[in-house]
Amino acid sequence: MALRESVYEMVLHNKGSMNMKIIKVVDDEEKKKITRALLESLPEWFGIVEAREEYILDSVGKDFFCAMEKDKVVGFLYLKQTGKDTVELAVMGVLKEYHRKGIGRALFEYTKESIKESGYSFIQVKTVKMGMYEDYISLGFKEFEVLYTLWDENNPCQIYVMAV
Description:
eight-stranded mixed β-sheet, globular
């Protein structure tokens, strides 16, 4: 998927040996297209159609960043304000063939700087119960709370937090 220059702002480029850049997407229709394309390519994690459609619609109006290799979108994330001082990493996805190449970390690190510049003090992320995804710990998040009934009893929600 290629983006037209008018719908994004260049914010960073070159991640290691890959010719990767991170951009901030400002056009809401492009946000929805990117979210749909990436989440549909990751059915192991985003296979519940209703939840996936909610993520797609919720991307509108959010701070939205994506990683690109040449003209191909390979990953994205967007933020949702949850309080005066707090934002949530609402959703993040990286194409499966690009996993474990530092793209998610690069997206997060750039986004963390953007969060600081915006004056927020904390970032949180909600994911499946502790032990399923240790990647958030490696980024510097701390375990905050497990909610057993937010989604359902078979799918407990782990909340991680970080001061920025």
